[in-house]
Amino acid sequence: MPFPDLVQPELGAYVSSVGMPDDFVQFWTSTIADARQAGGEVSIVQAQTTLTAVQSFDVTFPGYGGHPIKGWLILPTHHEGRLPLVAQYIGYGGGRGLAHEQLHWAASGFAYFRMDTRGQGSDWSVGETADPVGSTSSIPGFMTRGVLDKNDYYYRRLFTDAVRAIDALLGLDFVDPERIAVCGDSQGGGISLAVGGIDPRVKAVMPDVPFLCDFPRAVQTAVRDPYLEIVRFLAQHREKKAAVFETLNYFDCVNFARRSKAPALFSVALMDEVCPPSTVYGAFNAYAGEKTITEYEFNNHEGGQGYQERQQMTWLSRLFGVG
User: Fold this and answer.
1) Regarding the domain with residue range 10-320, which homologous superfamily does it belong to in the CATH classification?
2) Is 152 a catalytic residue?
3) Catalytic: which of 125, 186, 192, 278?
4) Structural contact between residues 61 and 168, judged by C-beta atoms closer than 8 angstroms
5) Does 186 participate in catalysis according to the annotation?
6) What is the pLDDT of residues 201-213, one digit of tens each?
7) Among 11, 164, 193, 266, which one is most buried in terms of CB atoms within 10 A?
8) How confident is the model at residue 244 (pLDDT cuts 50, 70, 90)?
9) Do 117 and 104 touch, CB atoms closer than 8 A?
10) What is the spatial order of strands in the sheet that 111-115 belongs to?
């Protein structure tokens, strides 16, 4: 197949035209403050598994609006002192899955948390967290739920959940508050960029083939969903383009990247039809902290998979002094 987007050197030089709203910081500061004010209980109970080399816990914590959000917490069975934490967010349509999946972080000496995604988790992995908030008219999927008002947009709730997960985990006496990392692929990569841009407690960001970056370019260049949900919405709501992109500017990970100071390890797939590589470079080139990016030249949206996980483990272990 031909490369669907820009190639080097034009790709590496690409600069996003996304603008940051004047009240971007205030919007997110007040959003997170309101969620914290809503409060809610954190529950951590032993998960029912046969695993013995790691400890597995079923976690419920308060997210946006105090709504209960699920997650898995996995720890090395034998550990001393405070552990570095890796919080992982999930790709589009997926949920937290099962407790015995994704054990490589705990096996490498990290506390590992995999957050469920409200309202998702019935496509390629299971979830158990409802989204109790309704929506105005939208295309099936999540990209246009509440998109005509930044206060009602679905990703306001999801990004807030992700920050509140950090709040819940930092209250645990075995978590090192100075060694907090976030990661994820696709939608999860976008969420990790958002959390890194909102929460200065995050000390490392690892977005793989990140989604939710450079919306104006994405809707013009993506070949496959989910960005095309926005296209189909605007094909019917022809007069609402300005309102849609005004909302999306508050959730564009290019803007979060501009505010992120933690070291970051990105990845991009140059044949990606879901998250066009120029949109990833739009966020990468805007990223304000120390950064590096790995290219998978001949891969589509699957990106580096195990190869990138191996690179993440090496990179983060060195950064956090593990092993």
Assistant:
1) Alpha/Beta hydrolase fold, catalytic domain (3.40.50.1820)
2) no
3) 186
4) yes
5) yes
6) 999 999 999 999 9
7) 193
8) very high
9) no
10) 43-46, 54-62, 68-76, 111-115, 83-89, 175-185, 204-208, 264-269, 291-296
